[in-house]
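Exam revision sheet. Question 4 asks you to relate a sequence to its structure. Input first:
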Amino acid sequence: MEIAKAQQDSQLLFKHRVYAFTFDMFMIGITSKLVMLTYTSFLKNFFHQLRYQVQDSIATGLPVIHFSVLMTVFFSYFFLSLYTSEGKTLGKMIFGLRVYSKVNPEIHLGLGESFRRTMGYLVCYATGLFLFALPMFRKDRRGLPDMFSSTEVVFEDFFNEHILIGEDKTTDREQIDLFDEAA
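Answer key, structure tokens:
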């Protein structure tokens, strides 16, 4: 495998990364809210016969449960989508982005890379979203999840054209040359 030194528009890539991440956070928020609505509906329907004090003590514990649900959904969303979807979350799929391993770009993200990338997201989230702004100040536009996992985010088209250059990939020019020789 040979990694090409072709460039892509870093400003456009950064915009698409921000849009994709915003969409991913929206999906995480919606999923978390749906889980919490289901949980509160369960509590109201099945524990309505309990004394008011018991219901109140359950209700005061909801912020802790909500935080736990949010972190579980956050971790699961990024980890499972990166590991099972060839380095793409739902937002990255919509905006045509892909995460690839700088160590071994010809295969999909491994379990360790997906886990380290997700931990990078969690560290950024735990710092009050401040570290998500790190790519704005770096010349190479890499964020903490990129650094944790030795991965990079690129456009899907760029990945297919420039990152995967293997011996089995035949270019259009080679096919035309082969066709002209046969005639």
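Marking note for examiners. The longest helix spans residues 10-46.
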